[in-house]
Amino acid sequence: AGRFRLRRLLRGGTAIESAALRPGPATVRLPSLSVTLGERGNVPAGSVTILEGPVTGVARALQPLAASGGLDPEAPENVRRRVLASWRTGGRAVTAADFRRLVPALDPEVARVEAAADPRAPWLVTVCVVADGQPGPGRLAPARLRWIEERLQEKAPLGTVVEVVEPRYVPVEVIVRCDEGVPPPPEGQRRRLEEELRGYLHPVRGGRDGAGFPHGTWLTSDEAAAIMARALAGERPAAGLGGSSWRPSRIEVRGPTPDAEAPRGSPLVIPLLERLSFEDLGR
Description:
alpha/beta; three-stranded mixed β-sheet; 22% strand
């Protein structure tokens, strides 16, 4: 008694039924599939807050989960290259390029693929799959990873073992030191500098080219200083940092390096910014 259920109507729409009439508002979850214009529809949770038109009895709309799965139309030349590659390999997964081509076709949620053979065991191929996330890295369920692994194993040559994993995220702290007596930047500017660093480290949209944090590299003090210098110099005017007179004196990146962990693991290792702190050189 007092519980609600949904019933689809033959003429279209959905009816809300309850075992007993209850006064006052009610919260109803309506799962739905929406077709949008490509990647522009992949919006983070909380973006959809209005209805296309008024609906009797509905006060507001909430979006608790991120919308995903939308893909932009593929260029004809890309389709041609993909079909030719499929014909040449017979749909098999042999090279790293084959894995980069096959995995997104199996799961459109995968935005980036890195594959590498273990130098100590060349028969073992580790495939790293990266899901896009807002604002940070996305994650895939273990069952989903195993399903992709099974499908790739079917396409791999005899004797090859395929292991599907996610990136290895290593937390780091970036410490910015200023000359003695020089105050740190305002709070708003500090937050924007942190956003710049986090954006650069994003596994899908990071890096200087916007194609993800580069494979096989690591965040160094010089690179962190260069990211902040470009922002402060106005190379990224959208961040609102151009023309700032404040400059750091020294930047240090603290945290374990990829070599500090077991050598076997994901072929893609991403530094994850845990904290950005500002200190006085006199301390």
